[in-house]
Amino acid sequence: MFSYEAPQDLLKDRVILVTGAGDGIGRAAAHAYAAHGATVVLLGRTLEKLEKVYDELEAAGAAQPAIVPLNLETAAEHDYIELANQLDDTFGRLDGLLHNAGILGVRTPLDNYDPIIWNQVMQVNVNAPFMLTQTLMPLLKRSDDASVIFTSSGVGRKGRAHWGAYAISKFATEGMSQVLADELENISAIRVNCINPGATRTAMRAYAYPAEDPERNPTPEQIMPLYLYLMGPDSKAVNGQSLDAQGDGHA
Ligand SMILES: NC(=O)c1ccc[n+]([C@@H]2O[C@H](COP(=O)([O-])OP(=O)(O)OC[C@H]3O[C@@H](n4cnc5c(N)ncnc54)[C@H](OP(=O)(O)O)[C@@H]3O)[C@@H](O)[C@H]2O)c1
User: Fold this and answer.
1) H/E element holding 151?
2) Does any ligand 1 atom lie closer than 6 A to the CB of residue 128?
3) Tens-digit pLDDT profile for residues 89-127
4) Taking the CB of residue 63, how many other CB atoms lie within 10 A of it?
5) Cα–Cα distance for residue pair 204/109, rounded to 1 Å
6) pLDDT tens across 206-247, in order?
7) b or e along 130-152 (b: 16 or more beta carbons within 10 Å of the residue's beta carbon)?
8) How many domains, in total, are found in the chain?
9) Is residue 215 part of a domain?
10) Neighbours of 52 (CB within 10 A)
11) Where are the alpha helices (H) located in the chain, listed in sequence order?
């Protein structure tokens, strides 16, 4: 397990947006970032889940979070612009962006793959992070030390039968992360990296592997060290990398 130990004030006064913050890994990241001093912007599609996380963070004494209910499958350009304007009015900048929301689609041969589901997966996993990154870039550029993190998967590095649009969307995610990292290298204070969470005990994992004992995988909370490391100033010099949250690498 990645062994980075984050100082308590790692993210003090930083404003960090997490997509898919209502459940699974995104919920754990929102908690971890808030516990280390960040003001977290909770973006997701299910308002009740976001409100629950909001209440949990408030009860834990975190900086007051913000909630952005947004369905990344159907969001249009004006929704992204409105979000950027709201964040600009409220915070004036953005110090961190965790692209975490994702959907699995179906597991079936490409031969058989439903084009409607293909488009849904590409919309949520690839097009939405592109739109969000592009629209929020002016706010990220106003930060002294901004971090953008994309979420990949093992099947986004080595294709595997029947993983269809999900695997291909994660290859695209790795590509987007690398292209953006290279474009911003040396011309901005923004670093861009990618995390492969590895098998993690969430609803998505249970859906993909219904016969698996969930206990054999770590909880989202247990894989947070890399999420903290890449979001905080200790990773300032790290750009264009794709790292495993459950790897034995070291910071
Ligand atoms: N768990 C694993 O083993 C594993 C392994 C490799 C990679 N990953 C990646 O890690 C990330 C998080 O996965 P997870 O396991 O935590 O999944 P999860 O438990 O299914 O959570 C996914 C989150 O994304 C949100 N989301 C889905 N579609 C959305 C949409 N259209 N608009 C806005 N939000 C949307 C969900 O919102 P709702 O709760 O409202 O549905 C949920 O909060 C994903 O990118 C996934 O591909 C996970």
Assistant:
1) strand 146-151
2) no
3) 999 999 999 999 999 999 999 999 999 999 999 999 999
4) 18
5) 19
6) 999 999 999 999 999 999 999 999 999 999 999 999 999 998
7) ebbbebbbebbeebeebbbbbbb
8) 1
9) yes
10) 15
11) 24-35, 47-59, 77-90, 115-122, 128-141, 164-184, 203-208, 224-231
**Using one digit for the tens of pLDDT, what is the confidence trace for 25-40?**
999 999 999 999 999 9
Distance CA 221, CA 196 (A): 15
C-alpha 186 – ligand 1 centre gap (Å): 32
Single-letter code of the amino acid located at 9: D
Verify whether ligand 1 is closer than 6 Å to residue 39 (CB atom): no
Which domain, by its residues, includes 179? 15-244
Is 41's C-beta closer than 6 angstroms to any atom of ligand 1?
no
φ, ψ at 207 (rounded to 5°) = -70, -40
Residues designated catalytic: 166
The one-letter amino acid at 248 = D
Looking at residue 49, which CATH number applies to its domain? 3.40.50.720
- The answer to whether residue 9 is domain-embedded is no
Is 80 among the domain residues?
A: yes
Residue 152 lies in a domain: yes
Pocket residue to mutate for ligand 1, from 45, 119, 174, most atoms within 8 A of Cβ: 45
**45 touches 69 (CB < 8 A):** yes
